[in-house]
Design brief:
The complex is a heterodimer.
Chain A (H helix, E strand, L loop, with lengths): L4 E12 L2 E12 L3 E5 L6 H8 L7 E6 L11 E4 L11 H11 L4 H14 L15 H13 L5 E5 L7 H16 L3 E6 L2 H7 L2 E6 L2 E7 H7 L4 E6 L3 H9 L4 E7 L4 E6 L5 H11 L2 E6 L4 H10 L2 H9 L3
Chain B lengths: L1 H15 L2 H17 L2 H9 L6 E6 L5 H7 L29 E4 L6 H9 L5 E6 L6 E6 L5 H22 L4 H8 L7 E3 L5 E3 L2 H35 L3 H5 L4 H33 L8 H28 L3 H20 L1 H6 L4 H6 L6 H11 L6 H29 L9 H9 L2
Parallel strand pairs in B: 1-2, 1-3
Antiparallel strand pairs in B: 3-4, 5-6
The chains are: A alpha/beta, B alpha/beta.
Chain lengths: 318, 428
């Protein structure tokens, strides 16, 4: 394994009875990167993560973490599982001390680290509270602290933002970015494509146990040809819509309130540059711009594979 | 080992230092032990005196005086030891008798008197008849009569009838009573070295039972905690968080050791209380050092045997109700020593005792019963073989428990069938 490779999965399979949960997944995560592990529910993300963590054993294939089995590197890995859980009657500080002790943090440093993290995650005054007294969002943040209190080299987060309000999502995003800046390698699964776009260097998309995509965001944007153009006419909106609609290569043109422009969806294989030039020719425009492909669109395109799903997604303004 | 120690300490601390444990395992038994000597006093002082009217319908004749004396109001007795009727009544509850004893005419209407008892106008009606050679009495009390009052009247009447009979025969009751006293037989057990020691049959039965119950309580309390904490960790979804930090084997080992500490605390607590009690009664010699040594050898074997079962079951289920169905078969085997303690203690080298000495998980409890009953030495080969079988069983149960634990802790949903459990055990 190359030195800069923190996670390596090679042709990994896992079955549960008749269900082939993970089929031949191969994956490499480089040191210091943030890798988004995306996929619909039941795609095999959590199973893959559990195999990476050595919580379950693959039926076939190789999994290496930090150059060894995760069992041997547990103290260097932080993990926030999808299933959230705390000892309900334990006090927050006591729970975090317990987790820190399990992860090998020196007892002289534990309280300082816990205090620092509680402050960072805007959880003042909760250390003496019992875990069951906290709100769901607060519990999730406490669990996040349990995953990072030992300053891991690798942080694995399974749906870290699910159930968090926008403010707490922002707080957690900020801390994940901070950890990355300090050199932590991060692998996280999520359904929130915007957050993934914001944080990830690289995205792995898994569906029905198989890897469909494993690329950097730039490469994805280049590869997944943008097919939506935003056009803001200066004159009569109805006439411009009709003119654009009649252009070859245009599948649909519809006014979009939020962007205050016509959303022009191009036909599969249509040339966006030619279409944009044609739009300028048929109607006076304030602006014509190619809309950036979102991960959402890529996700729906690969997983949904259905034009109508994509259209619905676009119409909703995403 | 750091992780195992951390898990074990958390398990121990969060079991022993909880209100539930302190109250259930320490405060309540302590209160019971302290209150035990007070119970008879409290009961005695709480029983109200017998009041009202006791009517005697003596169809035979000659019993009224004996009954009057037997039932005479407390404190009014003027004992005349020479008079057989005045000898103290034995084995009677200590209750104040403030009722009057009245004689009904021989031709009185018995049905009417019975009706009066039913209406609680009379405290009791004593009808003395002679159905055969000897007079006998029928004691009628109302439906709300206290059992202790009834017992007082029964005993007094029985003894009054005997004394009246003795007096009628012209005999001296106290002398007859003294002649009828049990003979004094002192049984001595002679050791192979020829040293005699007094036989204490009841203690010989109770000491082994005490040892086994101590083992049972200490182990089942902590094993039950092990079961419930494992289920709680699964249901509160904290298990996966733990498994990110420790391996399933480390987690299981930590939990087993932590609860072993809990079990040891209980053992020391109750054991010390028991020995203290025996010491206070100057009966410490009933527990020789060899008993304690055997007990300490069998304690960890019994603990790990039961705890491995409980940990495996706890990991396989999602709630306590489901656990009952899986623990059931093991519990049946574990109930054997409780059910059969008497024949085992009576015949520690009998076929039943020997057979169950080699059947886990009952064997540690049976062996403790046998070794502490010690009417006769247990053959050395049996002790060694039983230890070997039990140790092998512990290894097998802990191994199987760990295999089930490893798979079960991540399972949610329906309870596994026995066949599925076997599959989990075989899973790589």
């Amino acid at each position: 394994m190359p030195d800069d490779c923190v996670i390596r999965m090679q042709d990994v399979h896992k079955r549960f009875g008749a269900t082939h949960a993970v089929c031949g997944v191969t994956l490499q995560v480089e040191r210091g990167s943030v890798c988004g592990f995306l996929g619909p529910n039941g795609a095999g993300k959590s199973t893959s993560i559990r195999m990476i963590m050595s919580i379950i054993v693959p039926d076939q294939g190789l999994v290496e973490v930090l150059g060894a089995s995760a069992l041997e590197a547990k103290d260097r890995i932080g993990y926030l599982p999808e299933e959230r859980g705390l000892y309900r009657t334990m006090r927050v500080a006591e729970f975090l001390r317990f987790m820190a002790r399990l992860k090998g943090v020196a007892s002289t440093q534990t309280d300082a680290r816990i205090g620092e993290w509680l402050e960072r995650l805007e959880l003042p005054g909760v250390s003496r509270k019992r875990c069951m007294e906290l709100s769901k969002g607060m519990q999730q943040k406490v669990q996040f602290i349990a995953a990072v209190v030992h300053a891991p080299d690798l942080l694995i987060l399974d749906e870290p933002f699910s159930g968090l309000d926008p403010v707490n999502t922002r707080v957690l995003t900020r801390e994940i970015r901070g950890l990355q800046e300090r050199g932590t390698t991060i692998l996280f699964s999520t359904h929130q494509m915007r957050t993934a776009e914001e944080l990830c260097d690289r995205v792995v998309l898994i569906h029905r146990g198989e890897k469909l995509l494993d690329e950097t965001l730039d490469s994805i944007r280049q590869r997944f040809d943008p097919r939506t153009v935003l056009a803001e006419p200066t004159g009569d909106r109805a006439a411009a819509t009709a003119a654009i609609q009649s252009l070859p290569g245009v599948a649909e043109a519809r006014w979009h309130d939020e962007s205050q422009a016509l959303r022009v969806r191009l036909r599969e294989g249509g040339d966006p540059r030619a279409a944009m030039r044609a739009m300028l020719d048929v109607a006076p425009m304030r602006r014509v711009e190619l809309r950036r492909t979102t991960l959402d669109e890529v996700f729906v395109r690969l997983v949904g594979g259905d034009e109508s799903v994509l259209a619905a997604q676009e119409a909703s303004g995403d | 080992m750091r992780r195992v120690r951390a898990v074990a300490w958390r398990e121990f601390r969060h079991t022993v230092l909880t209100k539930g444990f302190i109250f259930g395992a320490i405060v309540v038994p302590a209160i019971m032990i302290l209150a035990a000597p007070l119970i008879p006093l409290l009961m005695g002082s709480e029983t109200p005196p017998i009041e009202g009217r006791v009517v005697v319908l003596d169809r035979v004749g000659g019993h009224l005086e004996a009954l009057r004396i037997a039932l005479q109001p407390s404190g009014d007795a003027s004992p005349k030891p020479a008079d057989p009727l005045n000898a103290p009544i034995e084995r009677r509850p200590r209750i104040r008798f403030d009722a009057t004893v009245e004689a009904a005419p021989a031709d009185a209407d018995e049905a009417a008197l019975r009706a009066q008892v039913g209406r609680q106008e009379l405290t009791a009606l004593l009808v003395i008849t002679r159905p055969n050679e000897r007079p006998s009495a029928e004691l009628l009390v109302s439906s709300n009569a206290s059992p202790r009052h009834t017992r007082f009247l029964e005993v007094s009447t029985e003894q009054a009838l005997v004394r009246a009979r003795v007096a009628a025969a012209g005999q001296d009751y106290p002398r007859l009573r003294a002649l009828m006293d049990d003979g004094a037989v002192a049984t001595l057990r002679v050791s192979p070295e020829g040293m005699p020691s007094p036989e204490e049959t009841e203690l010989r039965m109770l000491v082994p039972l005490g040892f086994m119950m101590l083992l049972w309580i200490a182990i089942f309390t902590s094993a039950n905690y092990l079961l419930t904490t494992t289920i709680e960790e699964k249901s509160s979804r904290v298990m996966e968080v733990l498994l990110s930090a420790v391996s399933p084997m480390e987690l299981l080992l930590g939990k087993l050791l932590g609860q072993a500490g809990v079990s040891l605390v209980m053992l020391l607590m109750y054991g010390a209380a028991g020995l203290g009690g025996l010491g206070a009664l100057a009966m410490l010699d009933t527990v020789p050092l060899s008993h304690l040594l055997w007990f300490l050898i069998w304690f960890p074997i019994a603990y790990f045997m039961v705890a491995a079962i409980m940990a495996g079951v706890g990991s396989a289920v999602s709630d306590l109700r489901e656990a009952q169905s899986l623990v059931g078969p093991a519990m049946i085997a574990l109930m054997v020593p409780l059910i059969l303690w008497m024949p085992i203690v009576e015949y520690p080298n009998g076929g039943l005792a020997v057979a169950f000495s080699f059947i886990p998980p009952a064997s540690p409890f049976v062996m403790v019963l046998r070794l502490t009953a010690a009417n006769e030495p247990i053959p050395v080969w049996q002790s060694i073989l039983a230890l070997a079988v039990a140790s092998g069983s512990v290894a097998a149960l802990v191994w199987a428990g760990a295999r089930v634990f490893r798979v079960g802790v991540l399972m949610q949903g329906k309870t596994p069938t026995p066949r599925e459990l076997l599959r989990w055990i075989r899973t790589r």
